[in-house]
Automatic annotation (TrEMBL), chain A:
It comes from Paenibacillus catalpae. Coiled coil: none annotated. Keywords: Membrane, Transmembrane, Transmembrane helix. This is Spore germination protein. The lineage of its organism: Bacteria, Bacillati, Bacillota, Bacilli, Bacillales. PANTHER family: LEUCINE ZIPPER PROTEIN 4, SPORE GERMINATION PROTEIN. The chain crosses the membrane at residues 12-30, 346-367, 426-455, 467-491.
From TrEMBL, chain B:
Belongs to the amino acid-polyamine-organocation (APC) superfamily. Spore germination protein (SGP) (TC 2.A.3.9) family. Keywords: Germination, Membrane, Transmembrane, Transmembrane helix, Transport. This is Spore germination protein. It comes from Paenibacillus catalpae. It is a multi-pass membrane protein. It is found in: Membrane. The keyword Transmembrane helix applies. GO terms for cellular component: membrane. One of its GO terms (biological process) is spore germination.
Automatic annotation (TrEMBL), chain C:
It is a lipid-anchor. Residues 226-393 form the Spore germination GerAC-like C-terminal domain. Residues 26-214 form the Spore germination protein N-terminal domain. Belongs to the GerABKC lipoprotein family. This is Spore germination protein. Gene3D superfamilies: Nutrient germinant receptor protein C, domain 3 (3.30.300.210). GO terms for cellular component: membrane. GO terms for biological process: spore germination. Keywords: Germination, Lipoprotein, Membrane, Palmitate, Signal. It is found in: Membrane.
């Protein structure tokens, strides 16, 4: 009986059972919502149904040249003739006694070359034999590019993209004779990834220049670049670059499938690609690295990674990426190993501060006054007297204003930027303290946090940490230190689940790969780094 | 293959998994529980002896599990002892895992409420913690092992640093005389020193998940050696710093040790802050391990898919954590779990290997 | 974009319950009153309380103890100019009397505008008069059980009223910090004993061993460490004081003090100061047919640092020997005085003889453990000294 009664005593009350029910229901609900959201957004991404897309790309009906000069000319005019920047110059071809038309678009061709060389050649030198379409004759033409196009639509598109197009009476296809030669930005230093020491060259918007920058990194016959056309409406060139004898074939296969499955009508920047090929789009962490630096790309390629370059953007993508890569800069390898190792550790510390700083402040100030050193507690009390807000609100006020300041700083023209920083940072901060809205101690915390987040080399990783910082603050405001730890553990759990193209995001810290630790928190001397990262399972492991 | 689809863990992960499973609430309470039994400063000897006994048992469990590659105890027990008895045994093991998970999370809540969050309702501590655990456990053994690998080095580092600083209190005389009252108290404390290794039963499932099961002995002995060393250090430093008379009456002696000094001029003057942080993280690992084992047991015994079992386990563990009415109940539960663990130690590996050897011999004779 | 709006809404809904339930344990640090010092005195209503009681504000109690806490920092009204606000002290002492320390604390809660927290308690001063009436276990039970108060809090005894030690005439000084900081002088003189923290106190009380607590004397708004108060282990009461020199000798004997000076009078009856550089003591117990005796060896190294003798003392071995002789005589005298106090006046072992015996002869210790203080006072203790004079400071004088 006594056993029974002691059992009865220990049966929890009904409220505990209710809590148990809630404890059960919430995760189930959250999972279902997550799944729903995932499948909902997943529809737009169309990773699996690649067949239909490819067919839809190739479906537009072919409209071949008829061979009759007048009809073809009419067909071209009717399709693109209404463009005011299209120039069509009809010219007689003397030796052939035929007519021809040269098409080009404003600003895309060197006018002088067109006038002097090409037209002169066509009008006075071109013979029947040269343009008759026999195989040999093409080699005799004085153009370095000449391709035949048998489809009017493709001809039109190419002309509008900037090629010089030629239509000649009696030849049943169009000729494209010059590459587009529009104005370009000159190659400049990469803005978002400045270095003190190292190459100052950055990618530009032209794909061919970018690939040439990669080629110019060194002599190799193993650097392979494969070109793809992407986009359903406005098509663009995309290049996959990798080292043929290093990259893991499975990884290459995976990247190729994902790239060929891209489903978007236009890809304005490589950011589009990043979002469409990443593994988990609900994660706050980026799973693809973007860079403007050719040296960074080539180093990644030598490690066995794959680069994705898109026409029209200076940002190349590198896959797969791990968390530690986001905190490394190429300079780590250019400087000697001792300073670079120390700087790297400093960056890890800064990342931690950027993520946890305000959360720790809230939990210590509002929950655990007993964990602060006495002297510090005293000075905090003295400075916080008269602050009317609870810690969370106080931190939010300052953090949000810093974020606004940062956002405003990007928009402002360069000469005003620093002035803005001074006004915002110094004057508002000081005034807020004077007015008693925030405590001076908090200003220190927020400033250190902000500076720490600037020290992260990859801009987008810094943004991630900034977002997560706010979540951490909410956890801290809810459960103090316990909440902060919970937040950290959740983050760890999430990161360990995350993969970038099959590589666990936290490698080599976990799963633990001792050999890759040489290049994690510290950078071993170069002579020790004779092997490629084990996590990439490269074809040949030794660097030689 | 570039992408690994099999849910296997490496040798080092297996070792860390075992370490994190064993290293739990004990690190805070163990000096008291053992000293209470012994009342002499020789507890460190007991820990050593108890550790060797546990190592032997683990060796036995590994050898047994290696006979059935790729199978956990829930799967191979049936092949040894027959369907029904093994089902009962394994259910007992699952209940044991659930109770331990509940116990760990309850002690966590007690410490948190006592030192960190006075005034917060207990469910507000327990439920978010279980949810976070659920999120991790849903990722499978690989994710769990990876989180363990992150937390583990931090734990070791902070623990050693804290103990190092406590050297200022350390008085070697507190650990003397050695064997002043003879060997008897050492044997007396043996039971409670075996109890601190609660959780080493996971070896019987862990071996099945190993990528290279032939290295299981190395991994498991390595995995138990770390808590073994840490427990040893803990008891030496706590008793050396506080003396047994203070330890006997202290609810959380290890925290008391760290709270007994301040490092003025250091940024964290009070080391209980980092200690509590790593202990909470350690408890999370510990809890997730038992959570995972219990879910795995149910799903393998009854051939359910594991995801719904994990969800179903949430309220069960919550209730298990809420059953004790007071901290005395919690410690009573801890003792009960310890005895149960001892019984399971005897029943599962010893009994199963006994039957297994008998059967094998019988087979040979028949042939 | 549509999908992000969905995501945001989802997050908002998830956050809603958290915002609604709020943060239970959240207490802003500036709204709390940290007390850093605590004094426990004989029970008598504090002056303010007397006034309250006259007006009928009372509750049932027997006034067994009076507790004073020191709250820092004082709330200051923010002024535009940063100049000091005037004569305000940086601390606030609140006293109350009653039968339970916690009850007194809760009584403070009906008087103060901020909840008090004990995380930053640095020192507890207990009046020796109170310890005559109450045992130290009773008085410190609450502080040992409480979860806020850290076991690193230092415990002292005061000769007069404990409350007075928490007052200071210095304007910008917090007396409790002052007391806590005085410990740093241990490197200069062994008159500052090893501080007894709550965790140590707990262990000492549990073993029923006698022990000493540093004695605090206050006067004229200043405080001094003056020797030590002896707590008798078996009863838990205060039984008497050791004076400063005794305390110093005790520290040397127990290997806890390594600094200090020995002042003696030389052959011309002029003061001579010997600065101790190292001091090692070794207590060896002997058990001979049930008779317990101890041998103590004190090995001292030091230098001659000050002499008032008109005739210079030349730096020779001869004079080194001679000075050592004088120092040894003085030390012997001091130690004998201490031993007399311990063995005959108070009959307590506070110098760790028992512990040495327990380590070397555990079985003998078990028999005598119960009334060790008595046994100790009957045991024979022999001293040997080993005094070295290493140098004469930065002077080298010829004969």
């Amino acid at each position: 009986m006594s056993f029974l009664s002691s059992v009865v005593v220990h049966i929890p009350s009904w409220s505990v059972f209710c809590q148990a029910l809630i404890a059960l229901l919430v995760p189930i609900l959250v999972t279902r919502m997550y799944k729903k959201l995932h499948s909902f957004v997943g529809n737009g991404r169309n990773l699996e149904t690649n067949k239909t897309i490819q067919s839809s790309v190739s479906t537009p009906e072919v409209m071949p040249f008829s061979g009759d000069y007048q009809t073809d000319l009419q067909a071209i005019y009717s399709r693109i003739g209404s463009n005011s920047d299209l120039h069509a110059r009809e010219l007689p071809i003397k030796k052939l006694n035929a007519r021809g038309t040269l098409f080009c678009v404003d600003g895309m061709q060197n006018e002088r070359v067109l006038n002097m060389r090409i037209m002169e050649f066509l009008m006075f030198e071109a013979t029947d034999g040269l343009l008759a379409g026999t195989v040999k004759s093409e080699e005799l033409l004085p153009f370095n590019n000449l391709s035949k196009v048998s489809d009017i639509d493709i001809f039109n598109r190419s002309v509008l993209f900037g090629h010089a197009g030629l239509l000649i009476e009696g030849i049943p296809h169009g000729l494209l004779i010059e590459f587009p030669n529009g104005t370009n930005r000159s190659i400049t230093e990469p803005v978002s990834e400045a270095l003190i020491r190292g190459p100052r060259i950055g990618f530009s918007e032209v794909l061919s220049e970018n690939t040439s920058l990669l080629r110019r990194q060194g002599f190799s016959d193993q650097l392979e670049m494969k070109s793809y056309r992407v986009g359903t409406r406005l098509q663009k060139d995309l290049v996959l670059a990798y080292m043929k004898d290093i990259v893991n074939p499975d990884l290459l296969q995976e990247v190729q499938t994902r790239v060929s499955n891209l489903n978007a009508d236009f890809l304005a920047d490589s950011g589009y690609i990043e979002q469409l090929i990443e593994d988990n789009y609900l994660s706050p962490f980026q799973q693809v690295q973007n860079t403007e630096r050719p040296d960074r790309v080539i180093n990644a390629l030598l490690e066995g990674r794959i680069a994705i370059l898109l026409d029209g953007t200076p940002f190349a993508l590198i896959v797969p990426v791990t968390f530690s890569m986001l905190l490394q800069t190429p300079e780590d390898y250019y400087e000697r190993w001792i300073p670079s190792s120390l700087l790297r550790m400093l960056r890890f510390g800064a990342a931690f501060v950027a993520l946890m700083g305000p959360a720790l402040y809230i939990s210590l100030i509002a929950f655990h006054p007993g964990l602060i050193p006495t002297e510090l507690a005293l000075s905090i009390i003295e400075t916080r007297q008269g602050v009317p807000f609870p810690a969370l609100i106080e931190v939010l006020i300052l953090e949000v204003s810093i974020e606004i300041l940062r956002e405003a700083g990007i928009r402002l023209p360069k000469p005003i930027g620093p002035a803005m920083g001074i006004v915002g940072g110094l004057i508002i901060g000081d005034a807020a303290v004077q007015a008693g809205i925030v405590s001076p101690f908090l200003v220190i915390v927020v400033a250190v946090t902000a500076i720490s987040s600037f020290s992260i080399p990859t801009y987008s990783a810094g943004v991630t940490l900034r977002i997560l910082r706010f979540i951490g603050m909410i956890f801290a405001a809810f459960l103090g230190m316990f909440g902060t730890i919970l937040f950290f553990l959740l983050l760890c759990s999430h990161l360990t689940k995350l993969k970038s193209f099959g590589v666990p995001y936290l490698t080599p810290a976990s799963p633990f790969r001792a050999t890759d630790w040489k290049d994690l928190f510290f950078r071993a001397p170069l002579s020790l780094m004779k092997r490629r990262p084990a996590m990439l399972k490269t074809r040949n492991n030794k660097r030689k | 293959m570039f992408t690994r689809t099999d849910d296997k863990i490496t040798t080092s992960q297996a070792a860390v998994f075992l370490t994190n499973t064993v290293l739990g609430a004990g690190i805070l309470t163990m000096p008291r529980s053992i000293t209470q039994e012994m009342r002499t400063p020789d507890s460190w000897l007991t820990i050593l002896v108890g550790g060797f006994i546990v190592m032997l048992t683990i060796l036995l469990m590994v050898k047994l599990s290696q006979q059935f590659p790729g199978q956990t105890v829930f799967q191979y027990a049936g092949r040894i002892a027959g369907r029904l008895p093994s089902l009962l045994l394994c259910l007992l093991l699952v209940v044991y895992f659930i109770l331990v998970a509940g116990f760990e999370i309850r002690s966590l809540a007690e410490v948190t409420l006592f030192f960190l969050l006075e005034g917060t309702p207990i469910w507000a501590v327990i439920i978010p913690f279980i949810w976070a655990g659920t999120y991790l456990v849903l990722g499978g053994i690989n994710s769990i092992a990876r989180v363990f690998q992150i937390v583990f080095p931090i734990t070791i580092l902070v623990l050693l640093v804290s103990f190092g600083f406590s050297l200022r209190l350390f008085d070697f005389n507190n650990l003397r005389p050695v064997l002043g009252s003879g060997v008897l108290p050492v044997l007396h404390g043996l039971k409670s020193s075996v109890l601190v290794y609660t959780g080493s039963e996971v070896v019987m499932t862990l071996v099945a998940f190993m990528q290279h099961p032939q290295q299981a002995v190395k991994a498991m002995i390595g995995g138990i050696a770390i808590p073994f060393a840490l427990y040893f250090l803990t008891i030496v430093f706590v008793i050396g710093g506080l003396s047994i008379d203070s330890v006997i009456n202290s609810t959380w002696p290890t925290i008391d040790l760290i709270r007994s000094f301040e490092i003025t001029g250091f940024f964290v003057e009070r080391l209980e802050f980092p200690l509590m942080v790593i202990w909470l993280m350690q408890m999370f690992c510990n809890f997730c391990s038992f959570f995972f084992q219990a879910s795995l047991g149910i799903s393998q015994l009854f051939k359910f898919s594991v995801t719904p079992v994990i969800y179903g386990m949430v309220p069960v563990i919550f209730l298990a954590a809420m059953v004790p009415n007071s901290i005395q109940d919690v410690f009573a539960l801890g003792d009960a779990i310890g005895s149960m663990g001892l019984a399971l130690f005897l029943m599962l590996p010893v009994l199963l290997s006994f039957i297994w050897i008998l059967r094998k011999k019988g087979l040979k004779q028949h042939v | 974009m549509y999908r992000y709006r969905q995501l945001k809404m989802l997050f908002l809904y998830l956050l809603l319950p958290f915002v609604l339930t709020g943060c239970w344990s959240s207490k802003e640090i500036e709204d709390l009153g940290m007390y850093t010092g605590m004094a426990i005195d004989i029970g008598q209503p504090a002056p303010v309380e007397k006034e309250f009681e006259m007006k009928g504000a009372e509750y049932s109690k027997h006034n067994k103890v009076m507790t004073t806490i020191q709250i820092v920092p004082m709330k200051t009204v923010r002024t535009k100019d940063k100049s000091n606000t005037g004569t305000n002290k940086p601390y606030l002492n609140v006293s109350g009397s009653g039968d339970s320390i916690l009850e007194i604390f809760r009584q403070f809660s009906v008087r103060l505008d901020q909840p008090i927290i004990g995380h930053h308690l640095k020192v507890i001063v207990i009046s020796s008069k109170l310890l005559r009436k109450q045992t130290i276990e009773q008085v410190t039970d609450f502080v040992l059980r409480d979860n806020d108060i850290r076991p690193s809090t230092k415990v002292y005894i005061s000769q007069g009223e404990a409350k007075e030690t928490l007052e200071s005439s210095e304007r910008n000084e917090v007396p409790s910090f002052h007391i806590a900081g005085m410990y740093r002088n241990q490197m200069r003189t062994s008159k500052v004993l090893d501080s007894v923290t709550l965790s140590k106190l707990d262990a000492l009380m549990k073993t029923k061993k006698s022990f000493v607590l540093q004695n605090l004397v206050s006067g004229g708004g200043e405080i001094e460490f003056s020797g030590a108060g002896i707590i008798k282990g078996s009863s838990g009461h205060w039984i008497g004081n050791l004076n400063q020199e005794d305390a110093e000798c005790l520290a040397w004997m127990t290997n806890n003090g390594k600094a200090g000076t020995i002042k003696a009078y030389d052959w011309d009856n002029q003061p001579l100061a010997y600065e101790i550089k190292s001091m090692k003591s070794k207590i060896t117990p002997f058990v001979n047919e049930g008779k317990i005796s101890f041998k103590v060896n004190l090995a001292v190294e030091g230098r001659l640092i000050e002499t008032w003798n008109k005739n210079n003392i030349p730096s020779t071995n001869y004079y080194a020997e001679k000075t050592s002789q004088i120092v040894e005589e003085k030390l012997t005298q001091m130690i004998q005085r201490l031993m007399k106090k311990l063995q005959s006046t108070y009959k307590v072992d506070v110098a760790g003889f028992g512990q040495r015996l327990a380590i070397v002869y555990p079985s003998v210790w078990k028999q005598v453990k119960e009334d060790w203080d008595e046994t100790f006072s009957r045991s024979e203790v022999n001293f040997t000294y080993d005094i070295k004079l290493t140098d004469f400071g930065s002077f080298t004088e010829k004969e």
